[in-house]
Amino acid sequence: MPKVKRKKSKKPKKERIDPSTFKNTGVQPEQLPTFELQNVVATFNLGVDYLDLRAIALEKAFVEYNPQKFAAATIRIREPRTTALAFASGNMVCTGAKTEVESRLAGRKYVRILQKHGIPVSFRNFKIQNIVASAEIPHTLKLMELSRAYGPYVSYEPDLFPGLVFRTTAPKLVFLLFRSGKIVITGAKCREEIAETFKSLFFGIVVKYIDYEDTSTSSSDYRAKMRRQSNR
Fold first, then answer.
1. Is the pTM of this model over 0.70?
2. What domains appear along the chain, each with residue ranges and CATH number?
3. Would you put residue 125 in left (φ > 0), alpha (ψ -120 to 50) or beta?
């Protein structure tokens, strides 16, 4: 008997995923950007009830004091590169440090400088008051859409300021989001607050408003585009 030829079963073709579909739906997976500390603001006390800033400034060349402009005297050091404000009450504010350790080290150096010049002070009650950090997303952001969705937490006035201000409640941090993808974080008391809140904000909110279609980073162009759309 002649052999019956069997039809070969065709294997189902694998569907190819079009990368453009990710751009349209916004489901492209994103990695959490790293943030860097830009400024640590700390306060400490010199252990005295009163500092005669005028007398100190007249005797010490490294102290700048102009009471007509500001009530505090200014002292600067190069390493770590920081600036300190000394008040007559004995309180000092140190700004410019890049890490918490640098901020404490700078505070101790300021106290040591004053001690070497015969001023009886001590280093007390050091406390970090504010940490400023920044991060950058490699995509543009839909700021107008974000502001409409999260109105109570957001302040966005593009005619006055190009960034969107997003405030969190616990902890109380402020995020400045810009069209270009740059993010500035302020209000934190420690690095852990920034890490946890930024992660939640990024994966919970920001990734939903990444603009994969319009890559223009110009805030003015984006503002004009939103105006044209609202006028239609």
1. yes
2. 42-128 (3.30.310.10), 137-231 (3.30.310.10)
3. left
